[in-house]
Design brief:
The protein has helices at residues 5-9, 17-20, 22-54, 59-74, 77-92, 98-124, 127-135, 140-170, 182-193, 196-228. With 230 residues, the chain is mainly alpha-helical. The chain has a single domain, classed as MetI-like fold.
């Protein structure tokens, strides 16, 4: 510990560099939001399809969905990003950009978690709602889209928001393949300016701000859903 003290005490804080690099950091924020936003949209859609397959009457679909969920929840995002970016290129000759590899990895991983969220929310909808829709002459797809799914979404919103937050935070891992997202840009700036404390503190502030904005938007959405679905 004593050997570390001189270095720690001798650290010179240079907060003045933060305004100088705000342009680069703003670009990183844009890429992070693009990466996270695309992953959220694709994961929501794919997760719903997997959840429906998981609850299907067809055994092959149920088994395939179960294997999908277990597979993509079993390993870390770090492994998926590396495998998709380097493995696919080596195996089939498809060269993905770092952003594309990140979106694919985040989509697959989070769709598995979202499928379980959907499945739980759909199971929470009272069976009487199904029967009421069918008694009104609704077809199964129409009953699901207009009666069952809206109620399930209301139940799922808090858990889905947590997953959205995880996607934003996990997007930083994609920097390992060279994305110019917020983490990637900050890491480059730290290497150039040798000011890790200042820059990583600003990085934390950006992530905190994004998460707080997501939480605020989710709270508004949840209130509206409760008002319209009572």
């Amino acid at each position: 510990m004593s050997a570390l003290a001189p270095g720690l005490l001798g650290y010179t804080f240079r907060w003045s560099i933060v305004p100088e690099v705000m342009g680069e950091l703003a670009h990183g924020v844009r890429i992070t939001l693009e990466l996270s936003g695309l992953s959220v949209v694709f994961a929501l859609a794919l997760g719903l399809l997997v959840a429906l397959a998981r609850g299907s009457r067809l055994a092959p679909l149920r088994i395939a969905a179960y294997v999908y969920i277990q597979l993509f929840r079993a390993l870390s995002l770090y492994i998926y990003v590396l495998w998709i970016y380097f493995g696919i290129a080596a195996a089939v000759g498809v060269n993905l950009s770092p952003l594309e590899a990140g979106v694919i990895a985040l989509t697959f991983l989070n769709s598995a978690y979202m499928a379980e969220i959907y499945r739980s929310a759909l199971g929470a909808v009272d069976r009487g709602q199904h029967e009421a829709a069918f008694s009104l002459g609704f077809s199964r797809p129409r009953a699901f889209a207009t009666v069952i799914l809206p109620q399930a979404i209301r139940v799922a919103v808090p858990s889905l928001v947590n997953q959205f937050v995880d996607i934003v935070k996990d997007s930083s891992i994609v920097a390992i393949v060279g994305t110019s997202d917020l983490m990637g840009v900050t890491t480059q700036l730290v290497g150039y300016y040798r000011a890790p404390f200042e820059l990583y503190t600003v990085l934390a502030g950006f992530y905190l701000s994004i998460v707080l904005l997501i939480s605020a938007a989710a709270a508004v959405l949840e209130r509206r859903l409760q008002r319209h679905l009572r």
